Amino acid sequence: MKKKAFVLLLAFSMVLAFALSACGGGSSDGGDEEATLRVVTEATFAPFEFTEDGDDEIKGFDVDMMNAIAEDQGLKIEFINMEFDSLIPALESDQGDIIAAGMNKLAGDRAEKADFGDTYFESDLMLLVKSDSTLTGIDAVTPDMKLASQIGTTGGDYVQKLADEGKIAQGVVLNQWTDSYMQLQNGDVQGVVVDKPVGEAYLNAHSDIAKFVGEPFGDHEEFAYAVQKGNKELLDKLNAGLANMKENGTYDELVDKWFS
Prior knowledge:
By secondary structure, this protein is α/β, with parallel strands linked by helices. The protein has two domains: 36-120 and 224-259, D-Maltodextrin-Binding Protein, domain 2, CATH 3.40.190.10; 124-219, 3-Layer(aba) Sandwich (D-Maltodextrin-Binding Protein, domain 2). 39% of the residues lie in helices and 23% in strands. It is built from nine helices and twelve strands. It has helices spanning 2-22, 61-73, 87-92, 110-113, 154-164, 177-185, 196-206, 232-248, 250-259; strands at residues 36-41, 44-45, 49-50, 76-81, 98-99, 115-116, 121-130, 146-150, 170-174, 191-195, 210-223, 226-227. Helix 5 links the parallel strand 8 (146-150) and strand 9 (170-174). The longest helix has 21 residues, at 2-22. It is globular, with a radius of gyration of 25 Å.
């Protein structure tokens, strides 16, 4: 009898274990389901990432690129919008897994705080002024002028450097590009230092009130996504996805879509 009872108990235990496994029971949180990766960005940097009036959906080149990479590599991602100078700290404090925000990987000490992937876009700085401005370029600014740019960006660093050297009266460094454009429209600053493709996106809708002047300036920029320091496995997946995009033509399609 004891032997029969033991066999019945063992059989019952096996059935129960199978049932728990089938319904996702036990200590597993989601089983083998891929975790959703948090992509942090700053959505006023059109055409790389932006939102439209009355809509919280983030759109742009970086969004389409990351979605294509995620699909290629079997990853699940979600986008989180925050201020630009909070992006690297978000990785460091585990509030984000990936930065995709038109970030120049060559600037400052960024490479010491995050691991950057392969370059996916290259850019230079330009000076954006009102359409009736007599300024001819960045070399023509004077000590009584103010220039605006965005905090945490190479443009923001550039205008602050000009102010520190006494070449302009003030570098107005603001949280968002839209704030910089508004300062220009209101006449509060004489120019905005901006990445060329971002300024071009603005001019597409505002060519009647603004223009580029002069030639590109500053250090050449290379945009790349970034992950937490030491996360080589994820970075390798992102780089492989980008390489596949370039090989199968998806990358060129996105460039045509957002920059043509």
